[in-house]
Amino acid sequence: MGCEGWTDLLSAYADRETSPEESAQVEAHAAGCRSCGRRLAIMAKSKEVLSRLPLPEAPRDLKEALLRQAARVEGQGRTGLSFAERLAAWLSGSAPRYGLAFGLAAFLLVGLWIERRQDEPVPLDLMLSAHRQYAETAVSPASVPAGADEELEEEEGDE
Amino acid sequence: MLQRFVEEFSDSAFQFAYRLCEDAEQSRELVQEAFYRLFKSWDRYDSSQPLEKWFLVILKNVYIDHSKKFDRKHMVSLDMPVRHEDGEGVPISETIADGRDGEVLDLLEKREASGHLEAALAALSREHRAILTLCDIQGMGYEEISGVLGLPLGTVRSRVSRARTALREGLVKRTGMVAYGL
User: Fold this and answer.
1) Is A150 contained in some domain?
2) From the list B1, B137, B157, which residue is nearest A53 (CB)?
3) What's the confidence (pLDDT) of residue B24?
4) Among candidate residues B26, B136, B143, B161, the one with its CA nearest the CA of residue A49
5) Could you list the residue range(s) of the whole structural domain that residue A116 is in?
6) Which of A53, A110, A152, B13 gives 20 to 30 Å between its CA and that of B102?
7) Residue numbers in chain B where pLDDT is lower than 50
8) Both A102 and A121 in a single domain?
9) In this predicted structure, what is the pLDDT of residue A159?
10) What per-residue confidence (pLDDT) applies to B83?
11) Yes or no, beta carbons of A38 and B102 under 8 Å apart
């Protein structure tokens, strides 16, 4: 195995993630190979410096807000979340998708119900009563005054 | 328990988020969203499992969601396998790096080593930055990292190694800059 083949083992060794056999192999190889010895030293040193790297703390106001929310959740369960928080959760969660599906289903059901209502036969007595009402209110030819047709034709001719 | 967790872990979460996105405002959003998801699903938390690990998985998922939303063009998934350059011989950059390892070691012994390392870390891909943050900064073992990133143990091992190789190449570039007084 060339030196490149040792890279993963050297890295795992720097992390103390090798088995005792692997560790022995790495130690034996690194002792005789200057290139791998240096690589291992770089890995170990980088790891050490990174572990001591000064890191930014979470902003104070963020921490306080999170603590307040945590207290509410712990104290009162899920209901402790404010309306805005629950609304945000609803909007970001699956609720809108369910809402849309429910709305669509309701719309289809109403549509089907109307369609069925239109297909139902009109009862005979309802038809007769409507006919009777129409006959009573409709203008019969006899009730039209004489000459009304001629007046109408003149009006149409003027236009 | 939850309040104590926020008290103890919010800094660490913020630092992890900061290392992932290198932006304080975005880190704040990530942490806020991750804690929000934790609170939302608190009643489903299995107390026999470590809370820290569960939270880091949430944070990682939030980060992936945010990346998809805001950075579609340049995003490389945290779950995507990283291409291994070793397949066709040794890359030229590594050959150069081999010859400069002595300079890199000198650089790491300097007082300003942390600044150089931080810059080299920031220049890594997100996958490499994430895994080195968990491993070297958060001090997690491979088993824990495997749980957080949802990767097999062998992939964690090789990805940490690739990340270190990339970091070393970054440090080699820094030694060149130092030599030219940049």
Assistant:
1) no
2) B137
3) 85
4) B136
5) 94-137
6) A53
7) 72-90, 92, 95-96, 182
8) yes
9) 46
10) 47
11) yes
Alpha-carbon dihedral sign for residues B72, B140, B163, B86: negative
Do B84 and A5 touch, CB atoms closer than 8 A? Answer: no
Contacts B3 to A, Cβ<8 Å: 67, 70-71, 74
ipTM higher than threshold 0.90: no
CB atoms within 10 A of CB A59: 16
* Residue B85: per-residue pLDDT: 42
Residues B7 and B55 placed together within one structural domain of the fold: yes
Distance of CA A111 to CAs A107, A119, B72, Å? Answer: 6, 13, 41
Quote the minimal CA–CA distance from B21 to chain A in Å: 13
pTM above 0.80, yes or no: no
User: Residues with Cβ < 8 Å from B85, sequence gap 6 or more?
Assistant: B91, B94
- Nearest-by-Cβ selection for B105 from A42, A56, A69: A42
Query: What are the pLDDT digits (tens) for A72-130?
Result: 887 765 444 555 655 554 454 444 555 666 777 788 888 888 777 666 666 777 777 87
CB B138 within 8 A of CB B20: no
- A9/A17 Cα distance (integer angstroms): 9
pLDDT for residue B106: 85
How confident is the model at residue A29, as a pLDDT? 93
Whether the CB of A68 is below 8 Å from some CB of chain B: the reply is no
How many contacts, defined by CB atoms under 8 Å, are there between A and B?
Answer: 137
Residues B10 and B63 in one domain: yes
Q: Do A42 and B1 touch (CB under 8 A)?
A: no
- Residue B10 has its nearest CB partner, among A4, A47, A66, at A66
